Amino acid sequence: MSLPLALWAVALSAVVLSAGPAHAAPGGLTTTEVSFSGDGGVVLRGTVLAPASATRRRPALVMVQGAGTRGRGELRAEAEAFARLGIVTLIYDKRTIGYSLFHRDYSVLADDALAALRLMRARADVDPARLGLWAQSEGAWVASLAAARSADPKFLITVGAVGSTPAAQTAWGYGQFLRHAGVSGSLPRTMQETGLRLLVGAGLFPEADYDPVPAWQNVHQPVLAQWGEFDREALPAESSRIIRQALERGGDTRYTIRFVPGVRHDLNLTADDGFDRIDSLPPGYGEFEASWIDGLAHDVPPATVGTVPQPNQMSRPLTPSAWYESPWLHLAVFALLLAAFAGYPVTAAVRRVLGRRGAPLVRRPARWLAALGLTTTLGSLLYLCFMLATAANVVGPVVAGRPLPWLVLQVLTVATVVTTLATALAWRRHRRSLDRAGRVRLGVLLTGGLVFLPWALYWGLLLP
Protein backbone atom coordinates (compact mmCIF):
# COMPACT_ATOMS: atom_id res chain seq x y z
CA MET A 1 0.00 0.00 0.00
CA SER A 2 1.41 3.41 -0.95
CA LEU A 3 1.95 6.05 1.74
CA PRO A 4 -0.88 8.39 0.59
CA LEU A 5 -3.28 5.45 0.40
CA ALA A 6 -2.18 4.29 3.86
CA LEU A 7 -2.86 7.75 5.28
CA TRP A 8 -6.33 7.75 3.77
CA ALA A 9 -6.96 4.32 5.27
CA VAL A 10 -6.02 5.54 8.73
CA ALA A 11 -8.23 8.60 8.36
CA LEU A 12 -11.23 6.56 7.21
CA SER A 13 -10.75 3.98 9.96
CA ALA A 14 -11.52 6.66 12.55
CA VAL A 15 -14.98 6.93 11.02
CA VAL A 16 -15.57 3.27 10.21
CA LEU A 17 -14.83 2.14 13.76
CA SER A 18 -17.10 4.77 15.28
CA ALA A 19 -20.44 3.02 14.77
CA GLY A 20 -22.54 2.92 17.90
CA PRO A 21 -26.07 3.88 18.95
CA ALA A 22 -26.79 7.01 20.95
CA HIS A 23 -28.26 6.57 24.41
CA ALA A 24 -30.07 8.98 26.67
CA ALA A 25 -28.08 10.34 29.59
CA PRO A 26 -29.04 12.34 32.68
CA GLY A 27 -29.56 16.05 32.28
CA GLY A 28 -30.88 16.09 28.72
CA LEU A 29 -27.71 14.61 27.19
CA THR A 30 -27.07 11.71 24.87
CA THR A 31 -24.06 9.42 25.03
CA THR A 32 -22.61 7.45 22.15
CA GLU A 33 -19.99 4.75 22.60
CA VAL A 34 -17.35 5.04 19.89
CA SER A 35 -14.04 3.53 18.84
CA PHE A 36 -11.37 4.75 16.49
CA SER A 37 -7.93 3.79 15.28
CA GLY A 38 -5.03 5.69 16.82
CA ASP A 39 -1.33 5.68 16.01
CA GLY A 40 -0.11 2.32 14.75
CA GLY A 41 -3.65 1.01 14.34
CA VAL A 42 -4.32 0.72 18.08
CA VAL A 43 -8.08 0.77 18.67
CA LEU A 44 -9.15 3.34 21.26
CA ARG A 45 -12.60 3.49 22.81
CA GLY A 46 -14.48 6.51 24.01
CA THR A 47 -17.78 8.21 24.74
CA VAL A 48 -19.31 11.21 22.98
CA LEU A 49 -21.61 13.36 25.11
CA ALA A 50 -23.92 15.76 23.31
CA PRO A 51 -27.08 17.81 23.92
CA ALA A 52 -30.13 15.60 23.38
CA SER A 53 -31.85 18.23 21.25
CA ALA A 54 -29.06 18.90 18.78
CA THR A 55 -30.68 20.50 15.72
CA ARG A 56 -27.62 22.30 14.39
CA ARG A 57 -23.86 21.92 14.23
CA ARG A 58 -22.25 22.77 17.52
CA PRO A 59 -18.76 23.47 18.86
CA ALA A 60 -16.93 20.35 19.96
CA LEU A 61 -14.06 19.22 22.15
CA VAL A 62 -11.75 16.23 22.27
CA MET A 63 -10.57 15.89 25.87
CA VAL A 64 -7.02 14.62 26.46
CA GLN A 65 -6.28 13.13 29.88
CA GLY A 66 -3.37 13.86 32.16
CA ALA A 67 -0.80 11.28 33.27
CA GLY A 68 -1.85 7.72 33.96
CA THR A 69 -4.40 5.34 32.50
CA ARG A 70 -7.38 5.85 34.77
CA GLY A 71 -9.77 5.78 31.83
CA ARG A 72 -12.28 8.15 30.32
CA GLY A 73 -14.37 8.18 33.52
CA GLU A 74 -11.80 10.50 35.08
CA LEU A 75 -13.08 13.35 32.88
CA ARG A 76 -16.76 12.35 32.80
CA ALA A 77 -17.97 15.15 35.10
CA GLU A 78 -16.11 17.80 33.06
CA ALA A 79 -17.43 16.35 29.79
CA GLU A 80 -21.01 16.43 31.06
CA ALA A 81 -20.57 20.06 32.12
CA PHE A 82 -19.38 21.02 28.63
CA ALA A 83 -22.16 19.04 26.93
CA ARG A 84 -24.81 20.78 29.03
CA LEU A 85 -23.39 24.06 27.73
CA GLY A 86 -23.98 22.92 24.15
CA ILE A 87 -20.50 21.54 23.37
CA VAL A 88 -20.27 18.07 21.84
CA THR A 89 -17.51 16.37 23.84
CA LEU A 90 -15.44 13.22 23.36
CA ILE A 91 -13.63 11.48 26.21
CA TYR A 92 -11.61 8.37 25.41
CA ASP A 93 -9.45 5.78 27.11
CA LYS A 94 -5.74 6.38 26.72
CA ARG A 95 -3.81 3.63 25.00
CA THR A 96 -2.13 0.97 27.14
CA ILE A 97 -0.07 -0.34 24.22
CA GLY A 98 2.97 1.92 24.07
CA TYR A 99 2.08 3.86 27.22
CA SER A 100 2.98 2.79 30.74
CA LEU A 101 4.65 3.99 33.91
CA PHE A 102 8.07 3.41 32.36
CA HIS A 103 7.37 4.10 28.69
CA ARG A 104 5.54 6.85 26.84
CA ASP A 105 5.84 8.87 23.68
CA TYR A 106 4.03 12.20 23.49
CA SER A 107 4.26 12.15 19.69
CA VAL A 108 2.29 8.89 19.58
CA LEU A 109 -0.31 10.28 21.97
CA ALA A 110 -0.59 13.40 19.81
CA ASP A 111 -1.42 11.22 16.80
CA ASP A 112 -4.11 9.53 18.90
CA ALA A 113 -5.63 12.93 19.69
CA LEU A 114 -5.64 13.87 16.00
CA ALA A 115 -7.38 10.59 15.18
CA ALA A 116 -10.04 11.46 17.76
CA LEU A 117 -10.49 14.83 16.06
CA ARG A 118 -11.08 13.11 12.72
CA LEU A 119 -13.79 11.01 14.34
CA MET A 120 -15.54 14.08 15.73
CA ARG A 121 -15.22 16.03 12.48
CA ALA A 122 -17.30 13.36 10.72
CA ARG A 123 -20.28 13.79 13.09
CA ALA A 124 -23.33 15.60 11.73
CA ASP A 125 -23.77 17.61 14.96
CA VAL A 126 -20.21 18.97 15.03
CA ASP A 127 -19.09 22.22 13.43
CA PRO A 128 -15.56 21.43 12.12
CA ALA A 129 -14.69 25.13 12.27
CA ARG A 130 -15.27 25.08 16.05
CA LEU A 131 -13.67 21.75 16.88
CA GLY A 132 -10.73 21.86 19.27
CA LEU A 133 -8.65 20.10 21.88
CA TRP A 134 -8.97 20.32 25.65
CA ALA A 135 -6.03 18.92 27.60
CA GLN A 136 -5.11 18.53 31.23
CA SER A 137 -1.64 18.42 32.82
CA GLU A 138 0.52 15.90 30.89
CA GLY A 139 -2.12 16.02 28.18
CA ALA A 140 -1.09 19.62 27.43
CA TRP A 141 2.30 18.36 26.19
CA VAL A 142 0.37 16.01 23.91
CA ALA A 143 -2.21 18.53 22.71
CA SER A 144 0.34 21.26 21.95
CA LEU A 145 2.24 18.77 19.77
CA ALA A 146 -0.98 17.84 17.99
CA ALA A 147 -1.90 21.49 17.40
CA ALA A 148 1.63 22.27 16.19
CA ARG A 149 1.59 19.56 13.53
CA SER A 150 -2.00 19.84 12.26
CA ALA A 151 -4.59 22.48 11.43
CA ASP A 152 -7.40 20.10 12.43
CA PRO A 153 -7.71 21.52 15.95
CA LYS A 154 -9.18 24.98 15.51
CA PHE A 155 -8.38 25.98 19.08
CA LEU A 156 -6.59 24.64 22.14
CA ILE A 157 -7.69 24.75 25.78
CA THR A 158 -5.31 23.56 28.48
CA VAL A 159 -5.63 23.02 32.22
CA GLY A 160 -2.47 22.91 34.33
CA ALA A 161 -0.05 22.94 31.40
CA VAL A 162 3.63 22.68 32.32
CA GLY A 163 6.20 24.85 30.56
CA SER A 164 9.29 23.12 31.93
CA THR A 165 10.63 19.61 31.43
CA PRO A 166 8.83 16.76 33.25
CA ALA A 167 11.91 16.22 35.45
CA ALA A 168 12.03 19.86 36.58
CA GLN A 169 8.28 19.93 37.12
CA THR A 170 8.38 16.75 39.22
CA ALA A 171 11.19 18.08 41.39
CA TRP A 172 9.25 21.33 41.91
CA GLY A 173 6.13 19.37 42.90
CA TYR A 174 8.07 17.30 45.43
CA GLY A 175 9.30 20.51 47.01
CA GLN A 176 5.77 21.92 47.24
CA PHE A 177 4.28 18.93 49.03
CA LEU A 178 7.26 18.38 51.36
CA ARG A 179 7.35 22.03 52.36
CA HIS A 180 3.59 22.00 53.01
CA ALA A 181 4.05 18.99 55.29
CA GLY A 182 6.74 20.82 57.26
CA VAL A 183 9.62 18.68 55.99
CA SER A 184 13.09 20.21 55.92
CA GLY A 185 16.64 18.91 56.09
CA SER A 186 18.14 16.34 53.72
CA LEU A 187 15.01 14.55 52.47
CA PRO A 188 13.83 17.28 50.02
CA ARG A 189 17.24 17.30 48.31
CA THR A 190 17.26 13.50 48.19
CA MET A 191 13.82 13.49 46.56
CA GLN A 192 14.30 16.46 44.22
CA GLU A 193 17.81 15.72 43.00
CA THR A 194 19.42 12.43 44.03
CA GLY A 195 16.41 10.18 43.55
CA LEU A 196 15.27 11.81 40.33
CA ARG A 197 18.72 11.65 38.75
CA LEU A 198 18.90 7.94 39.47
CA LEU A 199 15.42 7.36 38.01
CA VAL A 200 16.32 9.27 34.85
CA GLY A 201 19.68 7.54 34.51
CA ALA A 202 18.06 4.13 34.93
CA GLY A 203 15.50 4.88 32.20
CA LEU A 204 12.61 4.70 34.69
CA PHE A 205 11.38 8.27 34.02
CA PRO A 206 10.07 8.36 30.44
CA GLU A 207 10.24 11.67 28.56
CA ALA A 208 12.02 13.24 31.56
CA ASP A 209 13.85 15.79 29.40
CA TYR A 210 10.98 16.60 27.03
CA ASP A 211 11.06 20.32 26.17
CA PRO A 212 7.54 21.63 25.41
CA VAL A 213 8.70 25.04 24.15
CA PRO A 214 9.33 24.08 20.46
CA ALA A 215 5.82 22.68 20.15
CA TRP A 216 4.25 25.78 21.68
CA GLN A 217 6.25 27.98 19.30
CA ASN A 218 4.57 26.16 16.41
CA VAL A 219 1.03 26.47 17.73
CA HIS A 220 -0.87 29.03 15.65
CA GLN A 221 -4.44 28.39 16.82
CA PRO A 222 -6.22 30.41 19.51
CA VAL A 223 -5.16 29.19 22.97
CA LEU A 224 -6.89 29.34 26.32
CA ALA A 225 -4.32 28.28 28.95
CA GLN A 226 -5.70 27.91 32.47
CA TRP A 227 -4.22 27.26 35.89
CA GLY A 228 -5.80 26.96 39.31
CA GLU A 229 -4.97 29.49 41.99
CA PHE A 230 -3.76 26.58 44.13
CA ASP A 231 -1.97 24.56 41.47
CA ARG A 232 0.85 22.78 43.35
CA GLU A 233 2.05 20.69 40.43
CA ALA A 234 2.36 22.74 37.23
CA LEU A 235 4.44 25.79 38.27
CA PRO A 236 1.58 28.11 37.23
CA ALA A 237 3.44 31.45 37.31
CA GLU A 238 6.53 30.07 35.57
CA SER A 239 4.66 27.86 33.09
CA SER A 240 2.28 30.64 32.05
CA ARG A 241 5.22 32.92 31.32
CA ILE A 242 7.11 30.25 29.34
CA ILE A 243 4.07 29.32 27.26
CA ARG A 244 3.07 32.93 26.59
CA GLN A 245 6.59 33.79 25.44
CA ALA A 246 6.76 30.69 23.23
CA LEU A 247 3.45 31.56 21.55
CA GLU A 248 4.58 35.11 20.91
CA ARG A 249 7.91 33.98 19.47
CA GLY A 250 5.96 31.83 17.04
CA GLY A 251 3.72 34.75 16.08
CA ASP A 252 0.58 33.58 17.89
CA THR A 253 -1.01 36.42 19.83
CA ARG A 254 -4.50 34.92 19.98
CA TYR A 255 -4.19 33.60 23.51
CA THR A 256 -5.86 34.01 26.87
CA ILE A 257 -3.96 33.24 30.08
CA ARG A 258 -6.43 32.53 32.88
CA PHE A 259 -5.92 31.91 36.60
CA VAL A 260 -9.00 30.41 38.27
CA PRO A 261 -9.54 31.31 41.94
CA GLY A 262 -10.25 28.72 44.61
CA VAL A 263 -9.30 25.59 42.65
CA ARG A 264 -6.32 23.26 42.40
CA HIS A 265 -4.28 21.71 39.58
CA ASP A 266 -7.22 20.17 37.67
CA LEU A 267 -9.59 23.10 38.39
CA ASN A 268 -11.46 21.03 40.99
CA LEU A 269 -12.28 22.50 44.37
CA THR A 270 -9.82 22.24 47.25
CA ALA A 271 -10.13 22.29 51.02
CA ASP A 272 -6.37 22.39 51.65
CA ASP A 273 -4.92 25.03 49.33
CA GLY A 274 -4.44 22.53 46.50
CA PHE A 275 -2.70 19.80 48.49
CA ASP A 276 -5.74 17.49 48.59
CA ARG A 277 -7.46 15.37 45.94
CA ILE A 278 -11.12 16.37 46.10
CA ASP A 279 -13.07 15.53 42.95
CA SER A 280 -15.64 18.32 42.93
CA LEU A 281 -16.17 20.87 40.19
CA PRO A 282 -16.82 24.49 41.16
CA PRO A 283 -20.19 26.09 40.32
CA GLY A 284 -20.37 27.32 36.74
CA TYR A 285 -17.61 25.02 35.54
CA GLY A 286 -17.17 25.31 31.78
CA GLU A 287 -19.03 28.59 31.34
CA PHE A 288 -15.88 30.63 30.73
CA GLU A 289 -14.61 28.08 28.20
CA ALA A 290 -17.94 28.02 26.37
CA SER A 291 -18.03 31.82 26.19
CA TRP A 292 -14.41 31.89 25.00
CA ILE A 293 -15.19 29.40 22.20
CA ASP A 294 -18.19 31.49 21.12
CA GLY A 295 -15.91 34.52 20.98
CA LEU A 296 -13.55 32.89 18.51
CA ALA A 297 -15.72 34.21 15.69
CA HIS A 298 -14.10 37.56 16.48
CA ASP A 299 -10.49 38.50 17.04
CA VAL A 300 -8.95 37.10 20.24
CA PRO A 301 -6.53 39.70 21.61
CA PRO A 302 -3.90 38.53 24.11
CA ALA A 303 -5.29 38.72 27.62
CA THR A 304 -4.60 37.64 31.19
CA VAL A 305 -7.58 36.86 33.39
CA GLY A 306 -7.20 36.55 37.16
CA THR A 307 -4.28 37.08 39.51
CA VAL A 308 -0.97 35.37 38.79
CA PRO A 309 -0.01 33.20 41.80
CA GLN A 310 3.21 34.29 43.46
CA PRO A 311 5.73 31.45 43.26
CA ASN A 312 7.46 30.45 46.49
CA GLN A 313 10.02 28.40 44.57
CA MET A 314 11.27 28.42 40.98
CA SER A 315 12.01 25.23 39.12
CA ARG A 316 15.59 24.17 38.47
CA PRO A 317 16.85 21.94 35.67
CA LEU A 318 18.04 18.54 36.80
CA THR A 319 21.84 18.56 36.89
CA PRO A 320 23.62 15.87 34.83
CA SER A 321 24.59 12.71 36.67
CA ALA A 322 28.20 12.26 37.82
CA TRP A 323 30.14 9.06 37.12
CA TYR A 324 29.39 7.71 40.59
CA GLU A 325 25.65 8.05 39.94
CA SER A 326 25.62 5.30 37.33
CA PRO A 327 22.59 3.04 37.91
CA TRP A 328 24.80 -0.01 37.42
CA LEU A 329 27.23 1.21 40.06
CA HIS A 330 24.37 1.82 42.48
CA LEU A 331 22.96 -1.62 41.77
CA ALA A 332 26.38 -3.16 42.42
CA VAL A 333 26.77 -1.22 45.70
CA PHE A 334 23.29 -2.23 46.83
CA ALA A 335 24.02 -5.89 46.03
CA LEU A 336 27.32 -5.67 47.94
CA LEU A 337 25.58 -4.21 51.00
CA LEU A 338 22.91 -6.90 50.98
CA ALA A 339 25.50 -9.65 50.53
CA ALA A 340 27.73 -8.28 53.31
CA PHE A 341 24.99 -7.70 55.87
CA ALA A 342 22.81 -10.72 55.07
CA GLY A 343 25.76 -13.00 54.48
CA TYR A 344 26.96 -12.79 58.08
CA PRO A 345 23.87 -14.35 59.74
CA VAL A 346 23.56 -16.91 56.93
CA THR A 347 27.14 -18.12 57.34
CA ALA A 348 26.69 -18.01 61.13
CA ALA A 349 23.77 -20.41 60.82
CA VAL A 350 25.87 -22.72 58.64
CA ARG A 351 28.76 -22.62 61.16
CA ARG A 352 26.35 -23.39 63.98
CA VAL A 353 25.13 -26.46 62.16
CA LEU A 354 28.75 -27.53 61.69
CA GLY A 355 29.50 -26.94 65.38
CA ARG A 356 31.70 -23.90 64.87
CA ARG A 357 31.39 -20.56 66.59
CA GLY A 358 33.16 -17.24 66.32
CA ALA A 359 34.92 -15.38 69.10
CA PRO A 360 32.16 -14.24 71.53
CA LEU A 361 33.52 -10.73 72.00
CA VAL A 362 33.50 -10.11 68.25
CA ARG A 363 30.25 -11.93 67.57
CA ARG A 364 28.07 -9.49 69.54
CA PRO A 365 28.92 -6.20 67.69
CA ALA A 366 29.07 -8.09 64.39
CA ARG A 367 25.54 -9.37 64.86
CA TRP A 368 24.33 -5.84 65.59
CA LEU A 369 26.12 -4.50 62.53
CA ALA A 370 24.57 -7.15 60.27
CA ALA A 371 21.07 -6.56 61.64
CA LEU A 372 21.24 -2.77 61.60
CA GLY A 373 22.92 -2.58 58.18
CA LEU A 374 20.44 -4.91 56.53
CA THR A 375 17.42 -3.17 58.10
CA THR A 376 18.65 0.31 57.19
CA THR A 377 19.62 -0.58 53.61
CA LEU A 378 16.35 -2.33 52.79
CA GLY A 379 14.26 0.18 54.76
CA SER A 380 15.82 3.15 52.97
CA LEU A 381 15.19 1.62 49.56
CA LEU A 382 11.56 0.82 50.35
CA TYR A 383 10.85 4.23 51.86
CA LEU A 384 12.41 6.21 49.00
CA CYS A 385 10.57 4.08 46.44
CA PHE A 386 7.32 4.74 48.31
CA MET A 387 7.96 8.50 48.40
CA LEU A 388 8.83 8.61 44.69
CA ALA A 389 5.80 6.51 43.75
CA THR A 390 3.41 8.70 45.74
CA ALA A 391 5.04 11.95 44.52
CA ALA A 392 5.71 12.92 48.15
CA ASN A 393 1.97 13.30 48.73
CA VAL A 394 1.88 10.84 51.65
CA VAL A 395 4.35 12.08 54.25
CA GLY A 396 2.86 11.03 57.59
CA PRO A 397 3.84 12.41 61.01
CA VAL A 398 6.72 14.91 60.94
CA VAL A 399 9.12 15.15 63.89
CA ALA A 400 11.87 17.80 63.99
CA GLY A 401 11.34 18.59 60.31
CA ARG A 402 11.59 14.93 59.28
CA PRO A 403 8.90 12.38 58.44
CA LEU A 404 8.91 9.78 61.20
CA PRO A 405 10.10 6.90 58.94
CA TRP A 406 12.98 9.04 57.64
CA LEU A 407 13.95 10.04 61.18
CA VAL A 408 13.98 6.37 62.22
CA LEU A 409 16.14 5.51 59.21
CA GLN A 410 18.58 8.29 60.09
CA VAL A 411 18.86 6.99 63.68
CA LEU A 412 19.44 3.47 62.36
CA THR A 413 22.08 4.83 60.00
CA VAL A 414 24.02 6.43 62.86
CA ALA A 415 23.72 3.17 64.81
CA THR A 416 25.06 1.24 61.82
CA VAL A 417 28.11 3.50 61.59
CA VAL A 418 28.75 3.16 65.34
CA THR A 419 28.50 -0.64 65.25
CA THR A 420 30.83 -0.71 62.23
CA LEU A 421 33.45 1.05 64.35
CA ALA A 422 32.75 -1.21 67.35
CA THR A 423 33.07 -4.34 65.21
CA ALA A 424 36.34 -3.12 63.67
CA LEU A 425 37.83 -2.43 67.13
CA ALA A 426 36.67 -5.82 68.47
CA TRP A 427 38.11 -7.59 65.43
CA ARG A 428 41.45 -5.82 65.84
CA ARG A 429 41.58 -6.67 69.53
CA HIS A 430 40.69 -10.35 69.12
CA ARG A 431 41.85 -11.13 65.58
CA ARG A 432 44.36 -13.73 66.79
CA SER A 433 41.59 -15.79 68.35
CA LEU A 434 39.70 -16.03 65.04
CA ASP A 435 40.19 -18.81 62.52
CA ARG A 436 40.67 -18.01 58.84
CA ALA A 437 37.00 -18.44 57.97
CA GLY A 438 36.00 -16.14 60.82
CA ARG A 439 38.38 -13.45 59.62
CA VAL A 440 36.95 -13.69 56.09
CA ARG A 441 33.37 -13.41 57.38
CA LEU A 442 34.17 -10.35 59.45
CA GLY A 443 36.20 -8.84 56.62
CA VAL A 444 33.23 -9.06 54.26
CA LEU A 445 30.91 -7.64 56.92
CA LEU A 446 33.24 -4.73 57.66
CA THR A 447 33.62 -4.04 53.94
CA GLY A 448 29.85 -3.62 53.83
CA GLY A 449 30.03 -1.27 56.81
CA LEU A 450 32.73 0.84 55.18
CA VAL A 451 30.84 1.04 51.86
CA PHE A 452 27.68 1.87 53.77
CA LEU A 453 29.18 5.15 55.03
CA PRO A 454 29.55 6.99 51.65
CA TRP A 455 26.32 5.35 50.43
CA ALA A 456 24.40 6.80 53.41
CA LEU A 457 26.01 10.20 52.93
CA TYR A 458 25.03 10.23 49.25
CA TRP A 459 21.39 9.47 50.05
CA GLY A 460 21.24 12.08 52.81
CA LEU A 461 20.80 9.59 55.64
CA LEU A 462 23.75 11.05 57.55
CA LEU A 463 23.01 14.67 56.74
CA PRO A 464 20.95 17.00 58.98
From TrEMBL:
The keyword Membrane applies. GO terms for molecular function: carboxylic ester hydrolase activity. InterPro entries: AB_hydrolase_Est10, AB_hydrolase_fold. Residues 1-24 form the signal peptide. The chain crosses the membrane at residues 328-347, 368-392, 404-427, 439-461. Keywords: Membrane, Signal, Transmembrane, Transmembrane helix. Gene3D superfamilies: alpha/beta hydrolase. This is Alpha/beta hydrolase. It comes from Planotetraspora mira.
